[in-house]
Amino acid sequence: MKINGKNYRTIWHQWLTQNGAKNKALIVEYINQNKLPHQLLTEQAQSYQQIIHAISSMQVRGAPLIGASGAYGMALACAENPSDEALKQAAHELISARPTAVNLSWAVQRILQALLTQAESERFEYAVELCSQLCDEDVALNQAIGQHGLSLIQSLAKSKPFQPVHILTHCNAGWLATVDWGTALAPIYAAYDAGIDIHVWVDETRPRNQGAALTAWELAQHGVAHTVICDNAGGHLMQHGQVDMVIVGADRVSRHGDVCNKIGTYLKALAAHAHQIPFYAAVPSPTIDWQVEQPLKQIPIEMRSPDEVRWVSGIDRDGKLNSVNIMPEASPALNPAFDVTPAHLVTGIITERGVFAPSQLAAGYRESA
Ligand code: MRU
Predict the structure, then answer these.
(1) Ligand 1: does its nearest atom lie under 6 Å from the Cβ of 183?
(2) What distances in angstroms separate CA 142 from CA 120, 173, 188, 250, 293, one per listed residue?
(3) Which domains, and CATH codes, for the chain?
(4) Which atom of ligand 1 is found nearest the CA of 262?
(5) Residue 27 near residue 46, CB atoms below 8 Å
(6) Which of 107, 256, 319, 360 sits most deeply, having the most CB atoms within 10 A of its CB?
(7) Tell me, what DSSP letter sits at residue 64?
(8) Which helix (H) or strand (E) holds 366?
(9) Tens-digit pLDDT profile for the chain (369 aa)?
(10) Which of 100, 138, 259, 261 to mutate to test the pocket of ligand 1 (most atoms within 8 A of CB)?
(11) Are 59 and 33 contacting, i.e. CB atoms less than 8 angstroms apart?
(12) Which residues pair with 338 in a beta bridge?
């Protein structure tokens, strides 16, 4: 991603050298997404507890990025205490930071299991190497998703020459939700870079407004034409022929292609189905939970604070970051953060290995290895 012309990833590390090269401290840096789009602020974490805070307060968010952050949490835990017991405890705490995106437990377990095969004295440097590898892999998976999704957009563009392709997306599944490139937005960036006339309808995505705050911001940084709509506008636009395709990301996908993603995705899929508009989820393999057969029973849906429904954040007319309460004090609020779109509403899953119909996900994924 390029922000104001400068290359960034969402998370990276650096070494702080103390008392000569022998005493190196690991510093994990990341973009604090709670300040965007108004402030571009980076934070530093030097303990795994700080990473847990960053994940649960959503300074870092998006399934692949919380996976990468969890991995770095393990590296920081190693610096503190590389014993088996301490690492297992840190892994447990990191995985508990957010329950729905399977990428978090996938990444933390991957690092933990690899570290347990090493001598304690070797673990710290090895953990950092594994984190860099995991981040590079995330970028490569997303780039491949971009290329597979590009073919779908190219076909649509051919079917309506001299008119823009209108794509609707929900939440933020772009650069900011991954280490780089994004999942749902990777095909959009690839299409834009290939010169396709493309326009994105950006769902604001209440209650935390990841669409309005983050997706709109990164599309603007890349130069992609887009319009922010309130969450209730999608059905109307579909009814009027103004949506050619929906692409969303996912936090967990079942082996049969059911898609768990940001709350509100299910409603968009229902509306798309009613209007025969193709609905795709862009999903790197660490987001597929092959153990899940019955998504409604097996996928834990994060319940977040009702305050996120009650309070809305932004900048006021004086340019100051502020929050305002939009509800009667006595009214209760409920805040489920994700929902499940059943496979029969999903046209295809765009993975790094190709695009598969939900019913073909397991077989197609295996055969394309
Ligand atoms: O609660 P968030 O902001 O972490 O939710 C993010 C999403 O729902 C994304 O669509 C999903 O993680 C896919 S990210 C590539």
Answers:
(1) yes
(2) 33, 11, 12, 13, 25
(3) 2-137 (1.20.120.420), 141-368 (3.40.50.10470)
(4) 8
(5) yes
(6) 107
(7) H
(8) helix 361-367
(9) 989 889 999 999 999 987 666 568 999 999 999 999 999 999 999 999 999 999 999 999 999 999 999 999 999 999 999 999 999 999 999 999 999 999 999 999 999 999 999 999 999 999 999 999 999 999 999 999 999 999 999 999 999 999 999 999 999 999 999 999 999 999 999 999 999 999 999 999 999 999 999 999 999 999 999 999 999 999 999 999 999 999 999 999 999 999 999 999 999 999 999 999 999 999 999 999 999 999 999 999 999 999 999 999 999 999 999 999 999 999 999 999 999 999 999 999 999 999 999 999 999 999 998
(10) 261
(11) yes
(12) 262
Query: Could you tell me how far CA 18 lies from the centroid of its own chain?
Result: 35
Task: State which amino acid sits at residue 226.
Answer: H
Q: Do 64 and 107 form a contact (C-beta atoms < 8 A)?
A: no
Catalytic residues: 251
63: Cβ below 6 Å to ligand 1?
A: yes
**Phi and psi at residue 355, to the nearest 5°:** -105, 125
CB atoms within 10 A of CB 338: 24
Predicted structure pTM score: 0.97
With a 6 A CB cut-off, is 171 part of the ligand 1 pocket? Answer: yes
Phi-psi sector, 88: left (phi>0), alpha (psi -120 to 50), beta: alpha
Q: Count CA within 13 A, CB hemisphere, residue 101.
A: 34
- Residue 339, CA atoms < 13 Å, CB-side half-sphere: 15
Answer whether 264's CB lies under 8 Å from 170's CB: yes
**Ligand 1 atom with minimal separation from the 337 CA:** 1
59 lines ligand 1 (CB under 6 A): no
DSSP 303: B
- Residue 142 contacts residue 285 (beta carbons within 8 Å): no
